[in-house]
Specification:
There is one protein chain. This protein is α/β, with parallel strands linked by helices. The chain contains six helices and six strands. The chain has a six-stranded parallel beta sheet with strand order 3-2-1-4-5-6. Helix 4 links the parallel strand 2 and strand 3. The longest helix has 14 residues. It is globular and about 50 Å long. The mean pLDDT is 92. Bound molecules: magnesium ion. The site of magnesium ion (MG) has 7 residues, from loops.
């Protein structure tokens, strides 16, 4: 099974980006029906408010971990999997440092296992766990695992090569079950 490299997205899989928008009344869970707020059919004024909020330095420091994520990553590491966080920061320098600081605060044991890139499709691995079907669709290397954390998104159908999970317990079970590509 190749080298058992597991790439894990950060926002929406490990840290709860959307919850911070809900907590600050910028969006409601029901209206967040797309993968990113940029795709929502809301006014330009509201998008600007959201943009200003998420692009503040320190935004990531406020984010909570997704339930079960940190424990789940520890479980995967125990299974002799090579686990890497693979995230695509915005083109603002502080977004890159904010994300790294978040990792150092919540999961310092991953400090050597971080890949930041603007093009995830260039990153090789055996598995990719991401909450973005768009990103997974562009990734050509291995097994694609969709972390369906945003319940407002309804997928009428999924590509055959995408396995859907809704929690970290399911991710751990997937790998405990000895799933192979
Ligand atoms: Mg994401």
């Amino acid at each position: 099974m190749k080298e058992n490299i597991v790439l894990v997205d950060l926002d929406g899989v490990i840290c709860d980006y959307n919850k911070e928008l809900f907590k600050n009344n910028l969006l409601s869970p029901e209206e967040f029906y797309a993968e990113t707020w940029k795709e929502l059919n809301i006014s330009a004024k509201r998008k600007k408010e959201i943009r200003n909020f998420v692009l503040q330095k320190g935004f990531w420091s406020k984010l909570d971990p997704i339930p079960g994520a940190i424990k789940g990553i520890k479980e995967l590491k125990k299974m002799a999997l090579q686990v890497y966080i693979c995230s695509k920061p915005s083109v603002y320098s502080w977004c890159w440092s904010d994300k790294y600081e978040w990792i150092m605060k919540h999961m310092p044991f991953m400090k050597e296992n971080v890949i930041f890139t603007r093009n995830k499709s260039l990153v090789y691995g055996s598995y990719f766990i991401d909450d973005s079907l768009k990103e997974l669709s562009k990734w050509p290397h291995g097994r694609k695992i969709l972390f369906h954390s945003n319940k407002a998104i309804q997928y009428s159908s999924l590509p055959n090569d995408v396995f859907r999970v809704t929690s970290w317990d399911e991710i751990v079970s997937f790998f405990q079950g000895g799933e192979t590509i």
